[in-house]
Please model this.
Amino acid sequence: MTTPYANAVLDDKDLQEKLAAINPKYGPWVTRVAGEMWGLPLIDQKTKALIALTTDAVNQSPLGGPGSAFAAHVHIALNQGATRDEIEELFLFLTVYAGFNKMVGCFAALNDIMESRA
Model:
C-alpha cells in the first residue's frame, strides 16, 4: 500500500497528469477546485474518497472508460488506506439505497480495477 497523501488531489501528480490529459484547461481547473475541497480539515481523506465513490455510484455508471471518475476514486480510496473489503461493504450498504442494478456494475468495475492493480 502507498502512503496516504495529506491531500488526495494536490499531492497526487499522476492524478493531475491524467486530468490534464483529458483537457489542458479542465485538468488544472479541477485540480485547483477539487484540491481545495479535499484540503478542508474536518473530514479525513479516506472518508472523502468513500464519499466520492458513493456519489459516483449513485450518479453515474462506473463503466465510464478513460477519464472515469469512478475508477479514479477507487484508486484514491485505496491509496488513502481504504481496503477492498471496506469498498465492497460500502457497495453492499449502497445497494439498499441506490439500487441493485446500479451496484452490480460497481462491483464488476471494482473487480476490473483490482485486477489491473495486481
In short: The two ends are 12 Å apart (CA to CA). Residues 100-117 form the longest helix (18 residues). DSSP finds six helices and no strands in the chain. The mean pLDDT is 91.
